[in-house]
């Protein structure tokens, strides 16, 4: 539930006005991270996680669909248990409540872009424009690339056009966050789509294309980043919960029992697992196959190969997943370490490496909040 080290943390760090929170509300749990700025560095003060299943009357680890009232109640409980000392916070918006796409516009004039984007965006939005909020970022051209590809063929790169990252968020998601922020009393809050928070916490400087694979409970997000810019994003509607459900069905056992077996065995084969590794692997192999198609599609479009794969999210710690991904993609695979972006007591290193991938979004939110101070 909450942070078991809260009393230890309270003795190491005194509350400061510069403390900030990152609040990541996912379908199966809420994660919070509290950071403070000291000497130009981000210092970890406390962190915590609370599962949402009990608030929905179901098992821990299950994905839930809760209203703002229940989520506010759960967040208040978590802030208390984690011994947080500030309400200055940033909150995540699930990618499922947004649409991210890329469009090309026939101009390089930023003033014209401001006029053209809302008009062009209407072609991609399946609901009334009044029901969503729109933002966009022009993507800088890669001057070091000698050629660009479209469907595997070289195309003219000298056209006067701009590629734009278009982000559309449903107002319902924004309003839900505002309800929670008001009920909990968060101060100076902002909301950010989880992808961008995750990028901030797990990526190191580099120019080569990388893919971040975020294994969540109900879905897996895959997004390609090049030169620090998002280039492609995809949602696969299967996650770690599906592995648990498969085990539960195959063995005719409860969800809770299946969850324990999944955490113990992962997808590692043994003579004593009674075929459970095969059941678990079916979901993982499907997800990896879908990601393989994403990677191939990017290569056909850009002519560039993925340089590194980063695994994050709670499901990324599944035993055997890193090794299976390495075999599937024949590309270096790493488990993300978002806590490496902050300072903390040395004795916490092993604990934070094991829990880090679950807190990628919360850390990214808190880092952005610190940058605003």
Your description of this structure?
The chain is an alpha/beta fold. The protein has 2 domains: 6-96 and 171-244 and 274-371, 2-Layer Sandwich (Nucleotidyltransferase, domain 5), CATH 3.30.420.40; 97-170, Dna Ligase, domain 1 (2-Layer Sandwich). The chain is built from 11 helices and 15 strands. The chain has a 5-stranded mixed sheet. Strands 13-12-11-14-15 form a 5-stranded mixed sheet, sandwiched between helices. A 3-stranded antiparallel sheet has the order 5-9-6. Strand 14, helix 9 and strand 15 form a beta-alpha-beta unit. Helix 6 (240-251) crosses helix 7 (255-265), helix 6 (240-251) packs antiparallel against helix 8 and helix 8 (276-302) packs across helix 9 (321-329). The chain is globular and about 60 Å long.
Considering the protein shown, what is the CATH homologous superfamily of the largest domain? ATPase, nucleotide binding domain
Here the CATH topology of the largest domain equals: Nucleotidyltransferase, domain 5
Given helix and strand content, the structural type is alpha/beta
Order of helix and strand elements from N to C terminus:
HEEEHEEHEEEEHEHEEEHHHEHEHH
Indicate the CATH architecture of the largest domain: 2-Layer Sandwich
The strands making up the biggest β-sheet line up spatially as 3-2-1-4-10
| Main sheet characteristics | 5 strands, mixed
Give the beta-strand count: 15
Shape: globular
Number of structural domains: 2
- Could you list the spans in which at least 5 consecutive residues all have pLDDT below 50? 4-16
At the first level of CATH, the class of the largest domain is Alpha Beta
Radius of gyration, CA atoms, in whole angstroms:
21 Å
Total helical elements: 11
- Please estimate the helix content: 25-40%
Q: Kindly report how far apart the N and C termini lie.
A: 30 Å
